[in-house]
Write a structure and sequence with these properties.
α3 (about 35-55) runs antiparallel to α4 (about 95-160) and α4 (about 95-160) packs antiparallel against α5. Strands 1-2 form a two-stranded antiparallel ribbon. It is mainly α. A hairpin with a 5-residue loop joins β1 and β2. Helices cover about 65% and strands about 10% of the residues. The protein has a single domain (about 25-65, about 85-200), classed as Outer membrane efflux proteins (OEP). It contains five helices and two strands, in the order αααββαα. The radius of gyration is 36 Å and the shape is rod-shaped. The longest helix is centred in the middle third of the chain and has 67 residues, at about 95-160. The protein has helices at about 5-10, 25-30, 35-55, 95-160, 165-200; strands at about 60-70, 75-85.
């Protein structure tokens, strides 16, 4: 594809270290995904609203002490007590608490759904990785050696005048096709590994 001179030049640079390793998929890493973090933020907000709704149902009181001057410039002290009582809780506070509970459950379900989707993608990508590795291993350990033997046998038959040159050409074409298949499998495996790396959130 690039010519003999370009192919003979040394390759510069290195592949990322994570291309050869299985990436972890713990929830602590998944939590760093932007969608998961956004869902967690919404859940925290819903839980805060629930806490406020529950607090509004509890009675509260306060004391205020003031000091000032009246119209005759005489000192005047003031003591003020305040009470907040949850009157008509069944029709006021309870519906708000129930709505806040429902919102918390909805936000939690959304977060779990996003986590489940990421776990599904990770499982599918790992299965794809395993299948590609098995195909590549089978190609390198079984198919290519067999094709090499067939090419050597065809060449030997040609030299012995027991076959024509077409058999040698066909064997070499098969070898090139198998080698190109290996390159394709390696590229697909690298792509799957990269996708898995970014799915798990294990970013450098």
């Amino acid at each position: 594809w690039v010519g003999a001179e370009a192919a003979a030049q040394p390759v510069s640079g290195e592949l990322p270290d994570w291309l050869g390793a299985d990436a972890p998929a713990g929830d602590d890493l998944l939590a760093e995904q932007p969608e998961i973090r956004a869902a967690a933020t919404l859940l925290d907000g819903a839980q805060a609203e629930l806490a406020m709704a529950q607090a509004a149902k509890r009675p509260n009181w306060g004391v205020e002490l003031g000091w000032g001057l009246d119209a005759m410039d005489q000192g005047m002290a003031m003591l003020k007590f305040t009470f907040e009582l949850p009157i008509f809780a069944a029709s006021r506070q309870d519906p708000k608490i129930a709505a806040a509970y429902a919102n918390v459950r909805q936000r939690d379900a959304e977060r779990e759904a996003r986590l489940a989707d990421y776990r599904r993608q990770i499982a599918e990508t790992r299965a794809e990785q395993a299948a590609l590795r098995a195909q590549l291993d089978r190609l390198n350990t079984r198919t290519l050696p067999l094709i090499e033997q067939q090419a050597a046998l065809a060449l030997a038959r040609l030299r012995a005048a027991a076959a024509d040159g077409n058999a040698v050409l066909d064997a070499r074409k098969a070898r090139l096709a198998a080698q190109w298949r290996g390159v394709t499998l390696e590229a697909d495996l690298a792509d799957a590994t990269a996708r898995l790396h970014f799915l798990t959130g294990a970013h450098p």
